[in-house]
Amino acid sequence: MEVTKWMVHVCVFLVIGVVHSQIVTQTDLNNIADNLIVKVDVIRNYDNGSLHLIKVTFNNKASKSLSGYNWKIYFYSFFIVEPSHILSKDGLYTKPDGYTLPNVNLKLMHENGCLFSMSPTSEFIGLPHNEKREITFSAALWAISKTDFPPNWYMAANGLNARVISSTKGDFVGEFTSDKQWKRKKADKYDPYSPSVRYHRYKTTNSNVQQIVVIPTPKEITNKDHTKLLDVSGNVTIVHNGLNEEAKFITDKYNFDIGKTASTSGVNIYLFINNSISSSEGYTLSVNPSARCVTISGKTNTGVFYGVQSLLSLLSLGNNLQQMEIRDEPRYEFRGMYVDVSRNFVSKTVLEKLMDAMAMYKLNKLHLHLADDEGWRIEIQGLPELTQIGSKRCHSERDGICLIPQLGSGPDTSTSGSGFYSIQEYKDILSYAKKCHIEVIPEIDTPGHARAAIIAMEARYRKYKNTNVTKAVKYRLIDPNDTSKYLTNQLFNDDAVNPCIESTYVFIEKVVSELKAMHTDAGHPLNIYHFGGDEVAKTAWVNSTKCEQLNFNFSGDTASIRNELKNYFTQRVANITFTHGLNMAGWEDGFNAGDGMPFDISMYQNQHIYSNAWDNVWEWGEARRAYNYANAGYKVIMSHATHLYFDHPYEPDPEERGLYWATRCTDSYKTFGFQPDNLYQNIDVTVMGASISRAGICKSNTTCPLLHKPKNIAGMQGHLWSETILSEDNFYYMVFPRLLALAERAWHKASWENVIDETLQNSMRKRDWDNFAETVGKKELKRLDDIGIKYRVPPPGASNEGGEIKLNTVFPGLNIEFSTDNQIWKTGTIRDTASTVFLRTKSADGRRTSRVVQFETSTSTAWTIQLSFTTITLCSFILYICLLRH
Ligand SMILES: *[C@@H]1O[C@H](CO)[C@@H](O)[C@H](O)[C@H]1NC(C)=O
Ligand SMILES: *[C@@H]1O[C@H](CO)[C@@H](O)[C@H](O)[C@H]1NC(C)=O
Ligand SMILES: *[C@@H]1O[C@H](CO)[C@@H](O)[C@H](O)[C@H]1NC(C)=O
Ligand SMILES: *[C@@H]1O[C@H](CO)[C@@H](O)[C@H](O)[C@H]1NC(C)=O
Ligand SMILES: *[C@@H]1O[C@H](CO)[C@@H](O)[C@H](O)[C@H]1NC(C)=O
Ligand SMILES: *[C@@H]1O[C@H](CO)[C@@H](O)[C@H](O)[C@H]1NC(C)=O
Ligand SMILES: *[C@@H]1O[C@H](CO)[C@@H](O)[C@H](O)[C@H]1NC(C)=O
Ligand SMILES: *[C@@H]1O[C@H](CO)[C@@H](O)[C@H](O)[C@H]1NC(C)=O
Ligand SMILES: *[C@@H]1O[C@H](CO)[C@@H](O)[C@H](O)[C@H]1NC(C)=O
């Protein structure tokens, strides 16, 4: 009897076991992770409120069934999944219980930030070998490009090592073939560029296109004569006094001598300081064939350095230098590039290469975003937890090991989600920057965007709390009793340091001192400390008793208390930096007192307070801050997201990398056309691409204040936020060649910028661009190839012009290849082909190619005809209206 009962138990166990065996061994988990084929498709972005619908297909190619209840699959979403079920009613935080998808019995949970998970409920029906299952769920807003779905989903089960689901390492997102997939709303004006659109956008109408002598364009070039040449292929001597570092930039590339005295037989290059030059970065360069010399003079070493860079640019065209005299100086003192190394890390080598290019194009500030929610990237003497824990992202069942995976970083520390600069590496970066005449501006983002630091300091707290409480709490960044619930734009619920506890300032003081010490050691003094200050969640600290004790009592007017608290925090950080003799910088919202006005600058003792004006989505109405802040005495860095955010895509195409919250796309032409001295002249389109005018946006000088203190516009900066920058290649792709357009505008004010008449301005700008594009395509891209920078190779444009297929690219001179089968590539004239041709562009050095685009040779004719038809209709309509009105 006993035996029978026992046998029944076994049988029941076996039956359940067959259907629902748990994942118990590492081999099981690996087998599933390696063989579960995951595919993601966007079903639609509109037609059901502000939600997009996602389909995930699981195809189990593993030898075993995916069953049991003890596993979880982790994935990433930039927007909250199933908001109506997962968000609180007021949308201020996520509910802890997740949401079970009906029918499939999978529970979706928001972990933190962009990390979500799905796990089986007890009703989950296993997915047997070779079977498929589709699940659909919604998420807020939209997903219109492949990079909206970060790779490296992973599977975890208690006690086992989590493992990437192999199929999500590469291209696991389905094609975007309908406008419901690539448009955010019905009203979204953007479709992916067809080759024809591209062709017409970049087509040159100017018959007299000429290369620019040097990029960025010098202020003045005189005495230019291409018939008078100085041949530098023979013996060349560089003669200078104390400008060895600058001379070395020439001898690193060219086999020239360095001598104390001029050679009598060969060519001489003279480098010297010239005090009569007025601009501290100004220089003169003259190529004098009759005297067989080049002279470069600068007000300072930096000026000489820029003269040397211009000479290197001339030399890149060959050994015969044309006679000319250049007198040059920058438009702005601040010509920056911003790099976020927190969301994803890049090595020191990448930054050095970036600086090589920045030096070539005379950019002089490197703003490094060293800490954010997703990672802390700089070693700080005495606070090892910041890098031991805060620089790593991994899946861990225990606290205090690492940060949770984000942005496609996967379960372990092998990806760009992890990494930091050691003290030595940071000093190396500083020394390198110094040689390139670049100032490094470190940023530690506070009080929001500080999760990495908070998690690290909590680990430190736990490490010492039982042995030395004083030590444990010394650098603590939160009040553990503060129960305030909040959710940031990036979906974190625990990323704001508490501004009402002393230890926060002890921490900031420590970090500032250590940064300063590293700078001093490297002979690159710290000048500006950037404290971040952006995007603090609305309801952070509202229930903090520590804030109440400091008389920041949120039960009154929450918004104004929050402002007072922000005011207090910025002043305290400013005081710390002032004590160290530094200037302070912050994102504009960090200083925002409300109504687009900054805090009274007199409350800061620092010589200068810099602010990055970034939040300029025109229809949101905050572009006013740039001029309001400048008028109020802040040094404003034009950082406008619509034109200067290089994390945004080049084209409105689902295949192009990048976020698009500020604008759907920014190509080099758009950045080139940015007018920093004339902000409202840049008003062009809404986020959805609808045309807007200055008159339509600038209703009053409250919405568009005038600039009364132009001297306070310090300069401009390009920005690489790195949410989607998962590799070194991604990095170069997004920065280059847009950086050249940035440099052109930051150094040189074009004549068309002062032209008010829009039509005239547009045509002048296009002519200037044509010359610029010609120079980039035929000269500069090769120079980037030479230093190993893998810039984006632009896909071609094409147009069927009366039966003849014409091709172009944004940068003339790059070779274009075509194919009828996407396999065998040819160059030359396209004839007698099928209706579809595949096209791609080659890099200047011929080693890389653009993404492949398809051109419908026949429909393009139809398109052209249709366009002219539409044009005719439109014109008749306008004529009709005109007639009616008169
Ligand atoms: C629209 O979204 C809501 C909320 O997510 C969902 O319940 C509903 O089924 C959706 N409607 C359609 C037609 O998909
Ligand atoms: C170049 O310099 C070398 C070594 O100083 C000398 O032998 C040679 O004659 C020079 N050539 C010319 C063309 O002056
Ligand atoms: C020094 O600079 C001044 C001002 O640009 C210029 O006129 C002069 O020619 C320069 N001197 C030399 C020796 O190049
Ligand atoms: C505890 O830590 C503090 C701060 O680091 C230190 O000054 C003190 O000496 C430590 N106390 C003991 C008993 O180790
Ligand atoms: C948190 O609150 C408890 C209870 O009031 C108190 O004992 C404790 O000291 C508080 N912790 C901190 C860090 O203030
Ligand atoms: C603050 O505390 C009150 C009372 O417990 C609670 O109702 C409210 O939701 C809390 N606010 C936040 C933002 O956590
Ligand atoms: C905070 O303000 C509320 C309402 O204004 C008041 O009742 C409360 O006593 C204040 N708390 C403190 C600590 O000042
Ligand atoms: C900053 O320093 C000034 C001058 O010492 C002082 O008056 C002010 O109270 C300090 N600000 C804060 C918020 O501590
Ligand atoms: C506001 O605009 C008017 C013209 O519309 C101008 O006269 C006035 O000076 C402006 N005020 C400020 C403060 O810029």
UniProtKB/TrEMBL annotation:
GO terms for cellular component: membrane. Pfam families: CHB_HEX, CHB_HEX_C, Glyco_hydro_20, Glyco_hydro_20b. Its EC number is 3.2.1.52. The active site is at residue 535. GO terms for biological process: carbohydrate metabolic process; glycosaminoglycan metabolic process. It catalyses: Hydrolysis of terminal non-reducing N-acetyl-D-hexosamine residues in N-acetyl-beta-D-hexosaminides. Residues 1-21 form the signal peptide. SUPFAM superfamilies: (Trans)glycosidases, beta-N-acetylhexosaminidase-like domain, Carbohydrate-binding domain, E set domains. Gene3D superfamilies: 2.60.40.290, Chitobiase/beta-hexosaminidase domain 2-like (3.30.379.10), Glycosidases (3.20.20.80), Immunoglobulins (2.60.40.10). InterPro entries: Beta_hexosaminidase_sua/sub, CBM2/CBM3_carb-bd_dom_sf, CBM2_carb-bd_dom_sf, CHB/HEX_N_dom, CHB_C_dom, GH, Glyco_hydro_20_cat, Hex-like_dom2. The chain crosses the membrane at residues 863-883. Keywords: Glycosidase, Hydrolase, Membrane, Signal, Transmembrane, Transmembrane helix. Residues 34-197 form the Chitobiase/beta-hexosaminidases N-terminal domain. One of its GO terms (molecular function) is polysaccharide binding. Belongs to the glycosyl hydrolase 20 family. This is beta-N-acetylhexosaminidase.
